[in-house]
Write a structure and sequence with these properties.
Length: 411
């Protein structure tokens, strides 16, 4: 029998929308939660000999989910050059260190939306097997893109429905959890199509979605321009990344009919807000910032399901940036409870893992974060991480890369 772990805290949110529990506790047995709620009730269920960690002034909430990261990128000024300069062995080591940064910042699940050579899938398996420390990873493997399209250098170029179907099947065989499709251009690819421009035909996007769904995998579509958003919705994708409604002329064009479809078809949107969004807003000025952020505000007003992500790895989006990124959701009008839901329950639903994480319920994975203050009072509390528990393993900040076994050699 394993030694149970009882964590007591001044306050606890079992879910983002439940009433806060004061003088609370959660009881953990191996990787799962046995009970959570008022301390007296939970403590009474513990087996003799349990271990206790107590945080009388802290708030415990479900572990955070970052729905958009790129562990293969280094978050420096030129991640593409850095990537080219790293062989797979060096890259995997760097990715392990980035995964630990995610975990230290309270992230217990991260969805990696584009790597090279399936290295994020490899890291996912190493973490799951206890060979290295990090959050649970859901990995897209290599993203699908057009010939010399956005992020073509990651190796996922495919053209025409047949090639696209084969590329999806290849990712599925590699063990991908989700298929990532670059529906439009993007900022990171210097010589690629413009950021607003569609880079696949409707037929190609439909082929990708059909093939992914046939393999039981959801599709995440990178789409900035309104045309790309429309095509992604028409093809039946499951999440839309960025969704900035950009137009060729440099403006924004949010189409209400498409917003209605996002709602009707329960498509989640991950704005992948850069942690330095505030500095960006200051740089472009208040008027331009109001225009650039107005589509996100409008989607929030209309009740579009927004989920948290940071695009960690792109220039200056570090792997500890989720808390800063989440402040954007409050800025565009979400309540603090809805902001926390975007990083827990709602993200879990979008990622199809809401049956086992995102809530502190009996039988759920023991994924939780202990914060020094209460984020319902001030979201800045999300920066003050005291302890992270991922799948029952407690990690205090600064823990080094203790390996519990030998890492597999790279093949
Ligand atoms: Zn991205």
């Amino acid at each position: 029998m394993t030694e149970q772990l009882l964590i007591t805290a001044g306050h606890m949110l079992l879910t983002p929308d439940a009433p806060q529990v004061d003088d609370a506790a959660v009881l953990i047995d191996g990787p799962v939660i046995v009970a959570a709620g008022s301390r007296a009730t939970v403590q009474a269920q513990a087996r003799p000999g349990y271990r206790t960690l107590s945080f009388p002034d802290a708030t415990v909430l479900p572990g955070l989910i970052n729905s958009h990261v790129h562990l293969a990128f280094d978050a420096g000024p030129d991640p593409v050059t850095s990537l080219h300069e790293s062989d797979d062995t060096a890259l995997l080591t760097a990715m392990e260190s980035r995964a630990r940064q995610l975990l230290n910042s309270g992230v217990t699940t991260a969805r990696d939306l584009g790597d090279r050579n399936g290295l994020a899938i490899r890291l996912r398996d190493d973490i799951a097997a206890g060979r290295t420390i990090g959050p649970r990873i859901l990995a897209a493997g290599t993203p699908l893109t057009s010939h010399r399209g956005h992020c073509w250098f990651l190796g996922g170029e495919a053209q025409g429905p047949n090639q696209i179907r084969e590329a999806v099947r290849h990712q599925a065989r590699q063990g991908a959890d989700v298929i990532k499709v670059m529906a439009t251009g993007g900022g990171l690819t210097a010589d690629g199509p413009p950021i607003w421009a569609l880079q696949f035909t409707a037929e190609e996007l439909t082929a990708a979605v059909e093939e992914a769904h046939h393999a039981g995998l959801p599709v995440a579509a990178h789409a900035h321009g309104t045309g790309g958003i429309a095509a992604a919705i028409a093809a039946g994708v499951d999440t839309i990344e960025h969704c900035t409604w950009m137009t060729e002329s440099g403006g924004v064009d949010l189409r209400e009919d498409l917003v209605a479809r996002l709602l009707a078809e329960d498509i989640h949107v991950c704005p992948a807000t850069h942690p330095n969004w505030h500095a960006f807003a200051e740089r472009i000025g208040p008027e331009r910032a109001h225009e650039v952020f107005s589509p996100a505000r409008r989607m929030a007003e209309r009740g579009v399901r927004l989920i948290a992500g940071t695009d960690a790895g792109v220039p200056r989006s570090g792997f500890d940036g989720l808390a800063s990124s989440l402040e954007f959701f409050e800025y565009i009008g979400l309540s603090r409870r809805d902001v926390i839901a975007a990083a827990t329950t709602e993200a879990a639903r979008a990622l199809r893992i809401d049956g086992d994480t995102g809530r502190l319920y009996p039988g759920y994975r023991a994924d939780l974060v202990v914060l020094g203050a209460n984020p319902l009072d001030d979201l800045k509390a999300l920066h003050d991480v005291r302890l992270v528990v991922m799948g029952g393993h407690a990690h205090s900040r600064g823990e080094n890369n203790t390996r519990r076994g030998r890492a597999r050699p790279l093949s």
